[in-house]
User: Fold these one by one.
Assistant:
Number 1:
Amino acid sequence: MPIITLDGPPIADLETRRTLVAELTRAAANAYGMPEEKIIVLIRENTPEQVAVGGQLIADLRR
Amino acid sequence: MPIITLDGPPIADLETRRTLVAELTRAAANAYGMPEEKIIVLIRENTPEQVAVGGQLIADLRR
Amino acid sequence: MPIITLDGPPIADLETRRTLVAELTRAAANAYGMPEEKIIVLIRENTPEQVAVGGQLIADLRR
Amino acid sequence: MPIITLDGPPIADLETRRTLVAELTRAAANAYGMPEEKIIVLIRENTPEQVAVGGQLIADLRR
Amino acid sequence: MPIITLDGPPIADLETRRTLVAELTRAAANAYGMPEEKIIVLIRENTPEQVAVGGQLIADLRR
Amino acid sequence: MPIITLDGPPIADLETRRTLVAELTRAAANAYGMPEEKIIVLIRENTPEQVAVGGQLIADLRR
């Protein structure tokens, strides 16, 4: 039961979310040679105050 | 300091939560041969829009 | 499909491993009101050089 | 900097690995509307003794 | 692209958050011998109902 | 019990590892206003075949 965990900014649009999980699942099913039913996807959504790159919060980089 | 991380749907009832963490902790303490005080549990709660199985969001599978 | 991830020291004995995953699974199935077949367990095993408590590696604390 | 973490069985073939990370990255870049350079993929590989479904180790289910 | 993930209680003060990610990033950049720009930090914030130590929820330990 | 998880390349030198966990722990203890004894660090070490940036394995980027 492979698991794909995503950490990224919030995804507002439900259709984008559907396409994303379908594509990630297809890619993993192909790589592992397993049926898509075995693949689980978890989407974690982080705010700009929760992520930093280069020692600076995304919230500050955007200003 | 073993750590148990749970990813699942929200758990509304506080008593259910208490029983869950107590049982997970006991199982891990037994397996590692450590006192229960050393075991940490993290409960992550995901919405049906954040999880997919077989390429479909749980939110869509339930419809 | 709830997922239980364990981070702890290596578990040498296969029977201990079996008991552990069975007990963790039962606890989660009860809490979520789901059949056990829906529960996934991942065991991560870390060496004493990979874990620190209080700013000191477990490898150093044991000396 | 979205991060995609995969937990699955070992992937022996390097070309399969390349295709996998390329496809996962493209899917995430599309969903987030970001250049592919911003996407990180981590592949974690677990043995059949480290994963359980339905309370049984994959190592035992295969027998 | 090393990734530092933090799991802890919520951090209300933005300045504390800035200092934290800056210090974590500097420590990792030094250890890996990489420029700070390569380091990503993710802050996860958990409520006292989501964390347990010794089999008891933090929410209960505080009472 | 805040937890700091690091994902990065292997760290060969034990002294570097000690300095790293000490500095990460101090930064977290300061931010959370907790004693250092409460902070746990997990170091995960990934090979260049397990990490990709921009859709390419680190193993390929280095060539």
Note: Chain C touches chain B at residues 1-9, 11, 16-17, 19-20, 23-24, 26-28, 30-32, 51, 53 (CB under 8 Å).
Number 2:
Amino acid sequence: MNRLRYSVNLSYEIQDPTGDFLLIVEAAKTARQSVVSERLTLTPPVDAARYTDPLCNRLLRIRANKGPLAIRYEAVVDIDHRLDDGMSLTEVPVAELPFDVLSYLAPSRYCESDRMMEFAMREFGGMRPGYWRVYAIREWVRNHVRFLSRSTNERTSAIDTIVERTGVCRDFSHLMIAICRALSIPARMSSSVDYGADPAMGAPDFHAVVEVFLSGGWYLLDPSGVSIPTGLLRIGTGRDAADIPFAAIFGKVESKRPFIEIQPIADPAAGIGLPLATTSAISTW
Amino acid sequence: MNRLRYSVNLSYEIQDPTGDFLLIVEAAKTARQSVVSERLTLTPPVDAARYTDPLCNRLLRIRANKGPLAIRYEAVVDIDHRLDDGMSLTEVPVAELPFDVLSYLAPSRYCESDRMMEFAMREFGGMRPGYWRVYAIREWVRNHVRFLSRSTNERTSAIDTIVERTGVCRDFSHLMIAICRALSIPARMSSSVDYGADPAMGAPDFHAVVEVFLSGGWYLLDPSGVSIPTGLLRIGTGRDAADIPFAAIFGKVESKRPFIEIQPIADPAAGIGLPLATTSAISTW
Amino acid sequence: MNRLRYSVNLSYEIQDPTGDFLLIVEAAKTARQSVVSERLTLTPPVDAARYTDPLCNRLLRIRANKGPLAIRYEAVVDIDHRLDDGMSLTEVPVAELPFDVLSYLAPSRYCESDRMMEFAMREFGGMRPGYWRVYAIREWVRNHVRFLSRSTNERTSAIDTIVERTGVCRDFSHLMIAICRALSIPARMSSSVDYGADPAMGAPDFHAVVEVFLSGGWYLLDPSGVSIPTGLLRIGTGRDAADIPFAAIFGKVESKRPFIEIQPIADPAAGIGLPLATTSAISTW
Amino acid sequence: MNRLRYSVNLSYEIQDPTGDFLLIVEAAKTARQSVVSERLTLTPPVDAARYTDPLCNRLLRIRANKGPLAIRYEAVVDIDHRLDDGMSLTEVPVAELPFDVLSYLAPSRYCESDRMMEFAMREFGGMRPGYWRVYAIREWVRNHVRFLSRSTNERTSAIDTIVERTGVCRDFSHLMIAICRALSIPARMSSSVDYGADPAMGAPDFHAVVEVFLSGGWYLLDPSGVSIPTGLLRIGTGRDAADIPFAAIFGKVESKRPFIEIQPIADPAAGIGLPLATTSAISTW
């Protein structure tokens, strides 16, 4: 088990009489992730409506008046990913997928899998289905796209990335998701906070990774290869980035870049260690 | 109230040892649409798994063996759309939208609303919010796009349509949905069977239309302008066409074009009339 | 040397009072291709203005009145491609390229080389420059794109093809041209008539191939791999298909598909043989 | 007549053993623009090869060694645009266009006119042909696109701009060019240095504007509306920005933003005045 202390500070300056915010920044509560303690502070104090959707996304809706708005969330979170042997994981035929997983086969805003069928079949169609095919897709994306900050923007989709071959974690993930879906492997995006990111990547940040459905469960892979996946604290889960923006803002608002901190809390006596790299498949639900 | 007799025949030739099908062709059962009688016939007889999702889409999952597969569905369906006065309908601020409606503000595969913000604000931002603004969007789309069969394909999205200005009902709908979302008006697609289509459009076919969320409910508009909306029999409901293909096919399969029939059954004594054009807003749920 | 008899029949029905046509269908006259005899017949007889541009494209401009217009061109053409040893051909540094070749480094309508820099460098940047690198690009395109009639249209560009991986000769050529330019290798399109096309491709048709500039000259490669390049009769030369449409039509005109015939005329006594496959580099100017 | 003093400073740091540069920064010499004096200074002194193409673009080709490279060009330039009455200018039918103007009807990298036919015909097809239709296109672009620095990049094309409706001068120009070509009006891009730019636009910069072919000559329009067109000093002329980059760089080179100065030199005694706004059509050749 791993324990992480996470905090995020968001700062806004609302310029209209009121501004509306939909935020997904709180730690998700799932079978493998529990919140030990948490606190949300809004300055000035305003009401926040809360909603947790079926994917465990914890949506905060806030209406605030003209002027500054600061949002601070801090939490101590336990994560306990199960590690499975990739060799044992199989792709699930469409005929046997749970019905609520079928929607992760369809193309979405940033994952135009419908346009990548021929490519996916040519490149990966001949491989033996299973975790190692999925891992081969992850490796392909990691090896054919260059991590390049600010080379893309919030409109960039998998189509752009397969052409231009540069991007950030979100672009790597969208491309990997699109390829999986083109092969009829359900895939979706998880946004997380990344402990253990390559320091060359700079300050901690929200980090987008991929989940694929194999052998009845969702498994996590990081096609950008910059994180230690066992140290990922889950925030949101969705079909792609369009489903889980950390902040959707309505009205004229100036935003500062979010400030995020994350630290592991090791307590060997309690069986709590540091997140470590693993070659196992990481089961996230 | 209106009563419609609807049937669809699908014909496939499966070339792999097995083929998998996800079909959404049965009449939805909603508060405003009820199924009087129905029958599904599969030839050869094969098992079909059924699932009705939260949007009332009735998914059929079929695995069939090599060879021909014929699917026939026929039903008698009552629809009873409520007609409201458009003048009374208002847009709902983001701060007051039901949480499960928020996802219809996000961009999706065929409705890249995130790229149309400036256009939408310039063209419609100054109009008074409400049904008539939505109707103005419908009129704009109808007047700026030409209905042209076979000018587009299943990869065509709202971006393509705003550039090329030709398309079929699905393209009209994707563009209207994208514009609405860019203005923070929740919008989605309904696939239906169209009684009353302009005979110039040829044989009855699946018909894509738009639903927008106003004053707490969903209202139906047809931006292609070829249907009598009160005569639309609902099949599917989703964020866009990616969510509700009438047939998603996995494996090597030859398809024939679906053959659809639809007829009104008038029974004045029972208060059952013919679908009529209306200038009222049509509430669909 | 090879001798080919070529004819093309174009049929139009002009529906406006007049229709304007810009045609590039006549055999080009170059250092390696000479016209033994030719005849152009317009029915009804109308005036045709002629213009031969610096790339030897023979433009016909015709204004015709309402009604049918038939255009027949037939020619006997000698082609005498020089065969060079690919091993001896080198890429020319930008600093040494002829000035009038520089424009073939720039992106064009259907060859968005500016978006493929990273891809081209990753895939081909480490190879030794020269004919064999260009040949490797040709092989990559041939092996990663599927020839599929009617899978694309006249709006399809190299970007689409690298995503969707299907197309016809023109799409193969645009993709190869874009990759070459991304590596600073001048490349352009030649439209031709193809003797020796794989019969599976059907009737003779206009065929798009690629020319690259190496060692001071232009060399021809066919990335779709369906032709015998020594049997290609040159019609047009340009940056991409936008420069050399066989017919640009202005006004409301109904077109029939062009009907093309091409046959080799062998005359061994005169040293005239049949076009043969070759592994040599084919110098076209 | 107007006289302008223009200078540009370019600063590079070459990181490979050598770097190659293709520059188009010198004042064009045309029938309406003459160079009174000019000086090019390269530091360190390196050879520059020169080439003036048929469109009067003055290409400089430079190969420099590792280390810093500074390029300074300064000139005094007289411009004498002829002002014509727009009412007298007509569109030229395709059948009567000079042959070397026909290429400005074709789509190009950043001006995908082939995808905008329906839009152009709907919006402008019913207007009376001539200068005022062209002016209406200019007004449409200016009124439907927002000038927004850094909202676009060097990959942005007319398709993107008609969707996203933001951009800089180059984007405005590409969109206007595409619309003109879709209506069979020859159009191309001129890059210039802008005296008289709205000071809100910041320091002087290269400025992209449009030329259209009417009544036998080329006329200049600025769809971004930020310049005084009579004060534009011509640098380059081409089908779109792909033809006339002010600097194309080959090799690993760090670039600073070019520093440009431009000032009018008034000398009333010699008949040399300040550039003034005009409602006349500006003939540029």
Note: Helices of chain D lie at 117-124, 131-144, 158-164, 169-182.
